[in-house]
Amino acid sequence: MALHEIKHPLVRHKLGLMRGAALSTKSFRELAQEIATLLMYEASKDFVLEPYTERGWAGDVTVERVAGKKVTVVPILRAGIGMLDGVLQLIPGARVSTVGLARNEDTLQAHTYFERLAGELDQRIAIILDPMLATGGSMVAAIDLLKKSGARDIRALVLVAAPEGIKRVTDAHPDVEIYTAAVDRGLNEDGYIMPGLGDAGDRVFGTKQKHHD
Ligand SMILES: O=P(O)(O)OC[C@H]1O[C@H](OP(=O)(O)OP(=O)(O)O)[C@H](O)[C@@H]1O
Ligand SMILES: O=c1cc[nH]c(=O)[nH]1
Ligand SMILES: [Mg+2]
Questions:
Q1: DSSP character for 196?
Q2: Residue 99: CB within 6 Å of ligand 2?
Q3: Strand partners, 177
Q4: What's the CATH code of the domain at 173?
Q5: Which among 72, 155, 168, 199 is annotated as catalytic?
Q6: What's the superkingdom here (predicted)?
Q7: Domain hosting residue 18, numbered range
Q8: DSSP element (H, E) containing 61
Q9: Could you give the number of structural domains in the chain?
Q10: 116 has catalytic annotation
Q11: If you write DSSP's letter for every residue of 112-150 in order, what string do you get?
Q12: Which of 124, 190, 199, 212 lies most in the core, judged by the most C-beta atoms within 10 Å?
């Protein structure tokens, strides 16, 4: 199963607040990070544990730790930065691989302008962060790039996904697990998710706002 829509009440509540056009930049940022933490919790449910012995207060005790693969978190600039701290709260030692992608507003094609990846990607679980999965062009470009550099276990955390983007990603990369807080209706004529959140990058960074009535 490649798509996981997380219907937890806290996720739904927080995402509902984010849809408000009057929400402050501060609150939008806080909620994006909080939902990212909750999505990361879900996306780590199958992390493998291994037992080890710890010297406890009453002698040796068998405890567990996450085994094997290490994690790299991959925020897609800019908007993915809005989810980074929320994920690092749960996995503070993760390496951060940064990918800069901008969607051309007219053609909707994603253009890669920055790439700085962690090493040993073949031995890491890669967690891509981007609030919006719209046409899917940006996400497919990020996955292509990670796979080219050796990544095999790739998961994507998004706040809102359009059916068009889900199809494009699952057709191109059926092995990638997508975790989303919502699957919305679809794209409008400008390629924006409806009802969506508007321009997530602008809302996270407090830059220009567009209204689509
Ligand atoms: O699925 P797609 O159709 O590719 O669209 C989604 C992309 O568009 C937005 O970024 P944008 O290009 O606006 O850049 P920004 O994060 O710098 O605002 C969003 O954060 C995704 O990266
Ligand atoms: O709805 C959308 C689509 C792409 N990028 C956004 O920020 N919002
Ligand atoms: Mg982007």
A1: S
A2: no
A3: 155
A4: 3.40.50.2020
A5: 199
A6: Bacteria
A7: 3-205
A8: strand 59-66
A9: 1
A10: no
A11: EEEEEPPS-GGGEEEEEE-SEESSSHHHHHHHHHHHHTT
A12: 124
Residue 199 annotated as catalytic? yes
210 is a domain residue: no
Residue with CA nearest ligand 2 atom 6: 199
pTM of the predicted model over 0.90: yes
Name residue 47's amino acid: F
What ligand 1 atom has the least distance to the C-alpha of 138? 4
pLDDT tens-digit profile of 124-161? 999 999 999 999 999 999 999 999 999 999 999 999 99
The answer to whether residue 171 sits within a structural domain is yes
CA distance 202 to 35: 18
Distance 8 CA to ligand 3 centre (A): 26
Catalytic residue among 12, 107, 122, 175: 107
Residues lying with their CB under 5 A of ligand 3, a single-atom ion: 101
For residue range 24-65, list pLDDT tens digits in order. Answer: 999 999 999 999 999 999 999 999 999 999 999 999 999 999
Is 107 annotated as catalytic?
A: yes
pLDDT digits 0-9 by tens, 175-187: 999 999 999 999 9
Residue 213 in domain: no
Is 202 part of the annotated catalytic residue set? yes
Atom number, ligand 2, closest to the C-alpha of residue 192 = 1
